[in-house]
Amino acid sequence: MGVTRLWRTIRLGLKSLWLHRLRSLLTVLGIVFGVCSVIAMLAIGEGASYEAQEQIRSLGSNNIIIRSVKPPDEKKTSSTTTYMVEYGLTYADISRIRATIPNVTVMVPGRVIRTDVWNAKQRVDCEIVGTVPWYPIINNHRVERGRFISELEMQAVSNVCVLGHDMARQLFPIDEPMGKTVRVGSDYYKVIGVMELKSHRAVAGTSNGNGGGDKGSGQTPQASPADSSPATDRMFIPLTAARRRFGEILIKSSSGSRAAERVELHEATVKVDSPEHVVESSLIISELLKRNHKKKDYELVVPLELLRQAERTKRIFSVVLGAIAAISLIVGGIGIMNIMLASVTERTREIGIRRALGAKRRDIVLQFLIETVLLSGVGGVIGVGLGLAIPFFITYFAEMKTIVTFWSPLIAFSISGLVGVIFGIYPALRAADMDPVEALRHE
Amino acid sequence: MTNRCIVRLQDLRKSYQMGPVTVEALRGLSLEVTEGDYVMIMGPSGCGKSTLLNLLGCLDRPTSGQYILGDDDVSQLDDDSLSAIRGTRLGFIFQSYNLIQQLSVVENIEVPLYYQGVPESYSRMLATQIAERVGLKDRLDHKPFELSGGQQQRVAIARALVNDPLIIFADEPTGNLDSSSGNDILAVFDELHQQGKTLIMVTHSDEVSERAKRVIRLRDGQLEHDHKRH
C-alpha cells in the first residue's frame, strides 16, 4: 500500500474527526493533559535538581568540609553565671589530619566571624573569614579583581581583606574599592581584591539551619555563625590576622547573662586528590576526630555524597513522574478507546457500506486505527505545545529554574502515539469483525 | 441467445442458527443468469429474497451448494477474496441509498475505486463522468443530506456503476421513493439494461416487476416460478 493511499486514509480520518469537532477535542483532553504535565513536571524537576547539583558542585566534588558545631548539651547551664564553652575544630586537628591522610592535597582552615563591616556610613552585615592563601583554589571561587591574600601577608599578620562580590558593591556604591580601607570594630583593613559572584547559601544555609540573626545588634560585634542566619556575603582576611584581631573567644551577652565560647577554627576544607578517595578519606577524618573530641562538636559535609544523594533523589523523582505520566496517559487512552468504541457502533452502517463496496477487513482496521492515532497524535502535539509553554511561564512568573530536555517532548509525544495504537487496536478490530450483512441492516 | 452464463447457482442452501432453532432460509436453489439479463426477484417476506441477494452479492457464504460467478467458484472464498470480488465485479443499490454521510456526492461515487487503489485523479475524473451520466452534474460537491431521495438514489446508482461491474444488484431501489421519482429511477435501470448491463433486482411491486424480462418468484427458500418474457 502506497504513501498516497495512507495519506488519503489520513485525510478521511481527519474529515470524520472534524465532523465531531467538540467530541474529538474532549476526547483528546486526557492525552493533552497527560503529555503536557509530563513535560512540565520533568522540566521543573530537572531545573530544581540542576540548581541543587550546581550548588553542591560549587563546594567542590573533591572536597570534604569540616565545620564546628556547638554541642547541644552545653547550652543548658545556669543562666546567671558566666561560663565558657569550648568546642570545635582545633589547629591540632588540622595537623593531625594532614599527617595521617596521604591523599590530602590542601587544607583550608578558616575562622568565621559574623559581624558588621563599615566604609564611612555604609554598613554591611557579613561573615569575616580568616583563611589561608590557597582558599580560592579549593573552593573554585576565583578573584575577580585584584588578588587574594598572599603568604607574606599571612606571616606578617597584615590587615588586608578581599571583599565578596555583593558587599563590595554595597560598601563602595560609586568608587573603586581597590586600595581603600574598610572598618571592622576598631580595626581598618586594606582592600586588595574582590571575589567573583558566587552563592554559598546552599549548603551553608542548610547546615546552619534556623533564620533570625542578630542584624541590629551593633553592640555585640561577634557572634557565632552557628546560630545566626547565613550572611549575604563573605569577606576574607588572613587567618593569622583573624586570630590576632578577634581572638578565639566569643562573648555573647543577653538579658543579664554572659556566655563565652572558645572556638579555634570554624571550618576547614580538605581537598582530596581524586573523587575515588573522597569517601574513604572522610571516614578516616571522621574516625580521627571522634578519637580526639569528647563530644560531637563538629560535622562533616561531603559534597560528593550530597551530589550522589541528589542524583538518587532525582532518579526516584523521575520514576514517580514516569508512573504518574504513565497513569495519566493510560487514562487518556481509555478515554479515547471509549469514544472510538462508541464511534464504531455509531458508524456500523458506514462500515457495512464500505465492506459491501469492496473494503477488506484490514482497510477498516486501518481506517479506525488511523483515526485513533490521529486523535492521540493531535493530543500529543497540543500537549507538547502546552508542556513547552508552562515551564516558560513558571520561570517567568515564579522565577523557578526549569530545564526542558530535548528528549522529554520527544518521549511524551511518541508515548501518546503509542497509546493511540494500543487503545485503537481493539475498536478497529471490532469494526473490522462485523458481518457486512448485519452491519448493513443496522439502523 | 449467445450471451454467456455469468451466474450459476447449484443446489444453494443457507441456514442460520437463531438461538436453539435452525432456520433454513434457502433450501436447494438452482438458477442461471446470463449476461445482459434483467431479473426481478419477488416473493413474500421471509421467502429468502434478501438471503439470496446477499449470497449473490458475495456478502455472505452459502452453507452448501455452489455459486459460480463468471468463471470462478466463489462459494467458499475467504473474506478478503470476497471483498475484492465485491469491489471489482459487483455493484450495489440499496433501498435506503446507503450513502456515507460525511462524504460529498463525488466522493461517495469514488468509494469502490478507493478500495481498488485507483489513483485519486483518475477516480475523480471517472466519478465525475458517471455523475453527469445520471444527471448529478451540478450536485457533485453536495453532501447526501442536501439531496432529495431520488437524487440520493442516483448517487447510489452512479456508485454502483463506477467500477464497471459484471452485475448490478438492487434491493427495492424505489421502496423509499414517491412514484414519480421512483419511475425516474426505474427509467435509469431500463437505460442500463439497454446498454447491456446485467441487473438483478428485488422488489415487492408487480408494477416494477413488469419492466423486467424475467421474474423469479421464491417461496420458503425455494424457486417457485421462473418466468421469462420475450
Description:
- The complex is a heterodimer of chains A (443) and B (230).
- Chain A has 443 residues and is of the alpha+beta class.
- Chain A has two domains: 186 residues, no CATH class; 211 residues, no CATH class.
- In chain A, 53% of the residues lie in helices and 19% in strands.
- In chain A, the strands form three sheets. A six-stranded mixed sheet of chain A has the order 9-4-3-12-1-13. In chain A, strands 5, 6, 7 and 8 form a four-stranded mixed sheet that branches.
- In chain A, strand 7 and strand 8 form a beta hairpin.
- In chain A, helix 1 crosses helix 12.
- Chain A is elongated.
- About 7% of the residues of chain A have low confidence.
- Chain B is 33% helix and 30% strand.
- Chain B has a domain of 160 residues: Rossmann fold.
- Chain B starts with a strand and ends with a strand.
- In chain B, the strands form two sheets. In chain B, strands 6-7-8-3-9-10 form a six-stranded mixed sheet, sandwiched between helices.
- In chain B, helix 3 packs across helix 4, helix 3 runs parallel beside helix 5 and helix 5 runs parallel beside helix 6.
- Chain B is α/β, with parallel strands linked by helices.
- Classes of the chains: A alpha+beta (443), B alpha/beta (230).
- Chains A and B meet through helix 1, helix 11, helix 12 and helix 14 of A and helix 2 and helix 3 of B.
